[in-house]
């Protein structure tokens, strides 16, 4: 059980442990209710750090016995660990503990999932396995012996021996305990091999439950592509004889980069054309890459403490984004990433949960695996790369790997590498790591006799604990277009360092049209009242695909806001301009599909809030519907042509080209359904031979309120497939008419297949409700109540997933007083619960503060 008064941990309190761990041996005697773990750990005083109290973390473990150098000891046990008198020099600690994996529902430490044993140790789960200095700066080599009757016994590193009922593993690379892993079960293998460029052969395996063997091929291809990419781009090779991936059904997150034994949420690795969509395939490819890339950025070089989490996560996200843009379309990937950033990170950065990319305090570190640490963390690295240039970035990364291999490093170490490699002073740049909040960038322009001047002003609004902000370094990519649409001045990287700063472009023959923040060169809100004609001009001519998309997006946003606030009609000028882009067959279908997408309702709420307007979820929803109807009517004459261009004639492949066509096809079908009442969607559903087509048809039918028969058919077809059933649960809530969404969700929580202890299924229902903006914010408060009911129910079992899902309430203050009061009531009801977990209580406390 957690302590009553949660402790806050501060970055400024960091102290080394005081001992080094030279070597760890673990023996696991697995049994569901009584697993015994024997540990033998060699400790030596750390010459660099003064010895203090000898404290080992340990939670929910029963100590059976402990010895130091063979002599029995009786440590003082606390709820967080144990304290013990120890000799002055080096010594050997041995302990035997007992734990009960079958009753571990938190999915942290050693737990069971569908008959298999598996572990999740990041961030602080190893302490639920045995007593240990469970902190990332303590790195050691591990030898593991597993004793179990189950056929497959896996741990980190290389296998060193096995026999009937046992197996042994040794990991030669020193690692922190959070990278420890063990998996045991009746598993099937999808094997392959990879030869590194220095000629080392590596055995690759994807381990799955019987029946899932047919869903491994794509993950394996992605793994091999990732291994090649890291060799080619960063010169990084894999460093063990085997690389194992395991798919687990019960998992709180996407996946985990344990050394040599990555553990994946089965949704993040299993795929077949019949059961997974193109978007699933792309996501799996990027998560496989992400976890693999951690082998160097995270494992070989790890974090000194959890405040440095972005050191591994921001960098690894940045690396997986680069991988995807190299393999697929860089423009499409950038647009998708920015749309995600605005949808997930901006609300966090502009609400009560705002925190710096490198936080300075926390109660529960699990609450800091956030969009800010991950996605904004990656943006910060992207800015660094833009500022120093590609070549210097590559040089700095080489230096980072050389200098810090084997280290538990900090953001200071990371920035020093860039300073040493480039001679730049990055002290101001470092504010991106310490200041929370999204900077707002406003622009003024002046034209005077051939000289065009842009003057920028940056303001970062206050965030919790940070009332005043200093100016940050903002790379602003700008290109200038001449009146005929040509590029008058190609992209230039302006480096803004002051609160207000001007940049002049000389020698121009005519007043240009600026394209500002190309490629979204910094994670800021650009505040500029651009005349609609100018945006339309950029939509037609901008050479930068991101800004071309963003011009259209801004026009759509502004048109929608006029509809929401003033009851305006859909903006026919924008729709016509968009139509011209859509007809341009030289443009990538994937890009045209993105152009057809409207801002999400949550994004519109966010933008209204940024403009100081109280968002009305029903008005937002109705305007979005009206806009989509107007687009359908206006584009009707070209829908056949577009559908023909979206046609795929080759056998199914989830590559960029085919996926792009299918996403254009999906967007066209959505418009068509508004005109034909669902006839085309019904035909596509009936004929579909892959999940992308089947699901896009089903989505259209649900939105049209015409999906009864198809939902039943889908259920009957897929009831044996857990991952597809998650889609069945989620989609009928996410795409439901908002007026019905809370009731729909409630009814589905009573469905016999609603296994609420499984995080994927729980999220499929309650997470989907939170994603249906107007449904969640239903004026009766039924959405709020239902979510709170279930969060209260889940919290005692799985605090981590409960706490993460509380963020659905993070925007509560921006709505009308009625909705505010109802959300506050639910938050207070959660906060008041006896025995609430530390995770959830920290989140709710921050959201309410
Ligand atoms: N480190 C994992 C990743 O980003 C995420 C994770 C965190 C998984 C905590 C489980 C628990 O790849
Ligand atoms: Zn990661």
UniProtKB/TrEMBL annotation:
Residues 437-528 form the Peptidase M1 alanyl aminopeptidase Ig-like fold domain. Pfam families: DUF3458, DUF3458_C, Peptidase_M1, Peptidase_M1_N. Residues 533-848 form the Peptidase M1 alanyl aminopeptidase C-terminal domain. InterPro entries: Aminopeptidase_N-like_N, Aminopeptidase_N-like_N_sf, PepN_Ig-like_sf, Peptidase_M1, Peptidase_M1_dom, Peptidase_M1_pepN, Peptidase_M1_pepN_C, Peptidase_M1_pepN_C_sf. It catalyses: Release of an N-terminal amino acid, Xaa-|-Yaa- from a peptide, amide or arylamide. Xaa is preferably Ala, but may be most amino acids including Pro (slow action). When a terminal hydrophobic residue is followed by a prolyl residue, the two may be released as an intact Xaa-Pro dipeptide. Residues 104-179 form the Aminopeptidase N-like N-terminal domain. Residues 218-432 form the Peptidase M1 membrane alanine aminopeptidase domain. One of its GO terms (biological process) is proteolysis. One of its GO terms (molecular function) is alanyl aminopeptidase activity. The keyword Hydrolase applies. This is Aminopeptidase N. It comes from Citreimonas salinaria. The lineage of its organism: Bacteria, Pseudomonadati, Pseudomonadota, Alphaproteobacteria, Rhodobacterales.
